[in-house]
Design goal:
The structure holds two protein chains of two kinds.
Chain A lengths: L1 E10 L2 E11 L4 E5 L6 H9 L6 E6 L2 E2 L5 H5 L2 E4 L10 H5 L15 H10 L16 H13 L5 E5 L7 H12 L5 E5 L3 H4 L4 E4 H4 L2
Parallel strand pairs in A: 3-8, 3-9, 6-7, 7-8
Antiparallel strand pairs in A: 1-2, 1-4, 4-5
Chain B lengths: L1 H28 L2 H23 L3 H27 L8 H32 L1 H9 L4 H26 L7 H8 L4 H34 L13
Helix pairs in contact in B: 2-3, 2-4, 3-4, 3-8, 4-5, 4-6, 4-8, 5-6, 6-8, 7-8
Chain lengths: 209, 230
């Protein structure tokens, strides 16, 4: 489903990935682990086409990630960044943000569907009536994750998904993801609790440089 | 402070005196080509000023900004001088140069605020842009909130000025006309028309500058090009 074949990526003179290869199959739940700077976020950004490989091939569903294909590739992916400093203050607006885009209009959840998803992630009732200043970083992270999961896309990319979560919330999130057999998840994580519960761990310290 | 003030006043006086001499010469000559060249020079200088003051990469942005300012000024001039004032000769120096100059001056300050706000907030809130692009937005959809913020910041001062004209200030053009012997009712009609024209031309310039510059500022993966901001 996702493959990297001898991929090189560098920022200026700094090589982040060199001859890096990996294969991720449909439905796998993968954690990319490794120290800071080992290329975890870079791999996720490369799948989205946010950074470009200087050598090698990246494919999603056997389609090379390049300018011709990137828009159709992105239609199969949902992505949650680690940093969530958006200029939107209302939680409701934030939760429904992805459904404002024309491509997602048909997936717009009902109030009931949204609330069900929010409760799966242990979010309190009435959170949609609050502002983002009134909720914690972990709640915001789960709110956004719930929102993008409702897009029902086959690939989910998560950049440090547990960075603001306590163990209980992280477990609730991963339990839900593991219950979706068709969903392919690629995450970057330092969290051993998270890496122990995924189906595959790719250690970048060993795989890459 | 005293020295700087004196220098500023002397500079202003000399500059205006020289411009006055030059304008007198241009008005007497009233050659359409020279008038158009004078206005084009003003647009080019204004475009470079917009790029410099908004802190953007000149190589990347000069063409779109120049293009946007030229289109909006031509469009507004055609409307104002042709349809509103109904000049027989659109390039008549006495109207074409001062009115276009006034429009360019206003468009310039609005455009500096708009482009600077748009690209700096895109740089600052890059994650929000990426989030939108990654989760189904087209580039235009992903840039919508940045565009709204830029328009608001750029046009708010002009809207505020427009709304209090006559209450807390008498505009220079109207005052000049009255001092020059015009009837106040005629001066007011001109002023209303020019205020609306300034507002509309600023809006057109700002929107066009952002839309056209977007065609140059992103790579073929819809990512903002590196080095957009100096």
């Amino acid at each position: 489903m996702i493959s990297f074949d001898k991929v090189n990526i560098q920022y200026g003179d700094t090589k982040v990935l060199e001859h890096f290869s990996m294969q991720i199959g449909r439905g796998e739940k993968v954690a990319l682990s490794g120290p800071s700077g080992s290329g975890k976020s870079t791999i996720i950004n490369a799948i989205m086409g946010f950074v470009t490989a200087s050598a090698g091939t990246i494919k999603v569903n056997d389609t090379p990630v390049n300018p011709e294909n990137i828009r159709s590739i992105r239609k199969n992916i949902s992505w949650l960044p680690q940093e969530l400093s958006f200029n939107i203050k209302e939680c409701r607006r934030l939760a429904y943000l992805p459904f404002e885009f024309q491509a997602n209009h048909s997936h717009k959840p009902t109030e009931e569907e949204m609330n069900k998803m929010l409760s799966e992630f242990l979010l309190p009732e009435g959170i949609l009536q609050r502002t983002t200043d009134e909720i914690s970083g972990g709640q915001k992270q789960r709110l956004m994750l719930a929102s993008i999961l409702l897009l029902k896309r086959p690939i989910l990319l998560l950049d440090e998904p547990t960075s603001a979560l306590d163990a209980l919330s992280a477990k609730a999130v991963l339990d839900y993801i593991n219950k979706q057999p068709e969903l392919t998840m690629v995450s970057s994580s330092h969290d051993t609790g998270w890496t122990q519960q995924v189906t595959k761990v790719i250690d970048l310290k060993k795989s890459s440089l | 402070m005293v020295k700087a003030t004196i220098i500023a006043v002397i500079r202003m006086s000399v500059q205006l005196y020289l411009v006055g001499l030059y304008l007198q010469y241009i008005f007497d000559l009233n050659n359409g080509w020279i008038n158009a060249a004078w206005v084009l020079a003003m647009i080019i200088i204004a475009s470079f000023t917009v790029i410099r003051r908004s802190g953007l990469n000149r190589k990347l942005f000069i063409v779109p900004v120049l293009f946007a300012m030229t289109i909006s000024i031509v469009f507004i001039d055609l409307y104002f001088l042709g349809a509103v004032i109904k000049l027989d000769y659109l390039l008549d120096a006495r109207y074409f140069i001062p009115i276009t100059g006034m429009l360019i001056g206003n468009c310039l300050s609005n455009n500096i605020i708009a482009l600077s706000t748009f690209y700096k907030s895109l740089d600052r809130d890059n994650t929000q842009y990426r989030f939108a692009i990654a989760n189904g937005a087209t580039r235009d959809e992903a840039l919508k909130s940045f565009m709204a913020e830029a328009l608001k910041k750029a046009l708010n001062p002009t809207i505020a000025t427009t709304s209090v004209v006559g209450l807390i200030s008498l505009p220079g053009m109207m005052t000049g006309q009255i001092l020059g012997g015009s009837d106040p009712s005629v001066a007011i009609k001109y002023q209303i028309m020019i205020m609306i024209t300034i507002l509309v031309s600023s809006l057109i310039t700002v929107v066009l500058s952002i839309i056209i510059s977007n065609k140059f500022a992103f790579d073929n993966m819809d990512m903002p090009k590196k080095g957009m901001i100096k």
